[in-house]
Amino acid sequence: MATQHETPIQKEGHSSSSSTSPTRLPQKQKEHPEVKSAAQHGTPSTTTTTAGLIPQSGSSSIEVTMRNDLSLLYRVIRSIIKPLRPRLVSPPKKPYPGRSPKLDPPKKRNIVIKETEFEHVWMYHLHAFGPDSGKQAGVQKAHHDGKQTELAQKSDEHTTHLDGVKNEPRRTTKGRGFERRHRVYYFCGGGFQGPPSGEHWRFLAQLAQDLAGHRSSVTFPGTERSVDPESDAKIELILVSYPLAPKSPASESLRVLRKWLRRVMDEAVQNEETLGLMGDSSGANIAMSLGFWAVEEYDSSSPAATDAKANLDSKHQRESQRRHFPLTSIISISGPMDLTNSSPEVPYADKLDCVLTADLTMSVANIWCGHDKNRPPEYASIPLSSPEVSPLFHPDSAFQNLKSRNINIHGVYGTHDVLAPSGIDLMKKCQKLGVKGRWLVWEGQMHCFPLAAGGDWLGIREGREARKFIETVLRGDAEMED
Fold first, then answer.
1. Can you tell me the distance from the alpha carbon of 84 to that of 322, in angstroms, rounded to the nearest whole number?
2. Which ranges of the chain have pLDDT less than 50?
3. For a tag on the chain, would you pick the N or C end, based on fewer CB atoms within 10 A?
4. How many domains does the chain have?
5. Residue 131 domain boundaries
6. The CATH number of the domain where 54 resides is what?
């Protein structure tokens, strides 16, 4: 256990967290003028507010959807797995090498997974095909030099992106003259130490199918957006295999990922594309950490980005591109935003969590930050309270930069999760400082419940509806105007 000390949130008194704890909210709340009940959508237990977890007067940048309905299947699963915690999520016994691991993706129905390497980081692009498309699903592995092999059955035409990644061509659409691509880079959880699990691959494959409009997704109460085949944006999901602790602790892993992200953003500027960062659990922490870094440090007028824009036709176009910032959103699914576990709500959530424990999360955080014997001596350790690993502790100015860049911060949390208090605190800080976003807070749900969705009929209903919420959020981010 790390030594507890006063954090920036505690210096503010933590009064808002204590008085509006999501885990202690009553099941039924008095209706407020700013609260939109989902009863008209057939789910009385859903409440949407644009003010916060407890309805407040005045406008807010944050829209929160609160749920408290729990399926019988989930209640049964929760009672079965709680005695097994935290063995279900134990880190791997053998550490991974200190670099981005090359993965072995499973074959997924109607999905082609393309493996590429860029800036020494392995990436896995998920391309969804309709059930009647005639395309062959499978995995397209890269050669050792990073070049692509051919699929058994190719797509029709392709253009090249990054280091040879082949993608479907832009199609002309009304209004823009081309189809704008929005790439979502996903970081999987695993205690900062493990590669993606089977649940991660299944979740991303299903989400890719949903986004492509090839699945009849479940509806999410309060959302009425439908799949628009003529949308201006094409959304692509890309799993990022990041360097893992303890061989690559945060100081090294984040260094590699920042270099990678800078190049990815340069390419997006060049191609007039947008991107989002997304992750679950420890992966969400990394996504948020990288997002804050990009807002503070990325400059599209850097030499690499400027060289990429050399062929633009006019000075006006170059100046417009120089101001372009391609990151539109960061999405956290059950991610830890405070590695110190300093919220006074953590002990209460620890008693309710059926997957994690506070002790396990502290152990994992210490390994990630290099506070264990397995850290290579050439890499520095990082304090758990450092904003570069605990995004909640970024100063107000960093959040205000998110606002000025028009970056959305979204979240999905279940309140029976020891990591939820830090996520809720981040949401409140975003609200306080005017950062926009949409949040799903599900009373009584477990850690990373969207990954427990299973298929269309297996798994928990709450997970499927959370995935629909994420799909809707992604569509909204992809359609943001430049």
1. 53
2. 1-58, 145-161, 163-178, 224-232, 308-316, 318-322, 481-482
3. N
4. 1
5. 34-478
6. 3.40.50.1820
